[in-house]
Amino acid sequence: MDLYEYQAKDLFAAHGVPVLPGSVAESAEQARVVAEGIGGPVVVKAQVKTGGRGKAGGVRLAADAVEAEAKAAAILGMDIKGHRVRRVLVAAASEIAEEYYFSFLLDRANRTFLAMASAEGGVEIEQLAVERPEALARVPVDPLRGVDGDRAREIVRRARFPEAVVEEAAGVVVRLWETFVAEDATLVEVNPLVRDPEDRVIALDGKVTVDDNAAFRQPGHAGLVDERAEDPLEARAKAKDLNYVKLEGQVGIIGNGAGLVMSTLDVVAYAGQRYGGVAPANFLDIGGGASAEVMAAGLDVVLHDPDVRSVFVNVFGGITACDAVATGIVEALKILGDDTATHTAGAESAAATRGARSRPEASRARLRAANLPEAPSVHQDTARRRDRRPRAGGPQSKPLVVRLDGNNVEQGRRILAEAAHPLVTVVDTMDNAADKAAELAAAGA
User: Fold this and answer.
1) Which of 44, 55, 62, 63 is nearest to 5 (CA)?
2) Where is the ATP-grasp domain (predicted)?
3) 252 and 360: one domain?
4) Could you tell me which of 62, 116, 332, 334 has the fewest CB atoms within 10 Å of its CB?
């Protein structure tokens, strides 16, 4: 979970990291009151979980409380990279002699922690890493040894901090490490870490990401959640215990296993280049033991994304066999109100027979457990299907491309073929399925 700057600074202060006095405000009037309490010049900063605030006009200097109120009024309600500003941080302004950069993060590639530091702060660190990599020190941190004063001094010296601030900066680094460990963080970043004219080293900004998997031993982190700022689709997925991340593309992605889903993102992005830059719309891993109701829940989330124009379901049957996944797809589409299979009398009879077998009370209980509404009865479903068609633009009108492989793959493909759903296309290979999903997304633009 990413924290707001004011939340990060609260954690810093709790662990002894020097920060300037300030408080959060949700209205211009509150900002004026905070500024009056601080006295003198203040900085009014938009609180959003994204970068680029300064360039967007979300960080402004105010000479006094009256000006702070005006600046806050201008910032509140702004849209910064899709994030609406609902609160501002009003903090004391500071004269800056020098700016540095420092962070601790989880180095997944090397299975350890990493300290990153530079004597050139206040800039885009990603840009610095590309243009002048020698200016950015990367120092592995042994989690068993940690960071004491000696190690902290070594890190800041390798980053070429001025010798005059090494001791002061090393003390801040030790306390940042304490914050990183005590709060179960995966990232603690200060940019800029500044030296003021009195040679004090202060965290002028702060970014912290805490590990949601540590929530069981961090009860205080529950109070850091901002439900108003949470993406509604991610909140919907979280309520269903789905591993979902919203992206900016047009092809919804559902797969079982993080590795397979990541590969699916790559092949869709590659295929999308042939169709005007179509890209993945999300990451959704339904897990290695995904059942039919979990697949139904996943489709319910992805199909309700207004940016999604097609969906690619990529499943390798293992713990959960392909026939169970196929059943989940069929049931989910019925639940979403779009059972528009071929309507010959023979097909209706077969569908009714299959429905009687596949939707007993136990199946209904599973679907209720997935927080989805029940499908109509077999007789209701058969009677209504003649007049039901997908609603244009709604979740029921988005085409699905399904690729199944592995355990019970033939049975799974047969279930989908018998359902004969007009919006479902079954493709044998991942590359061809990605190409088809990208093509359908481009056609739906």
Assistant:
1) 44
2) 9-219
3) yes
4) 116
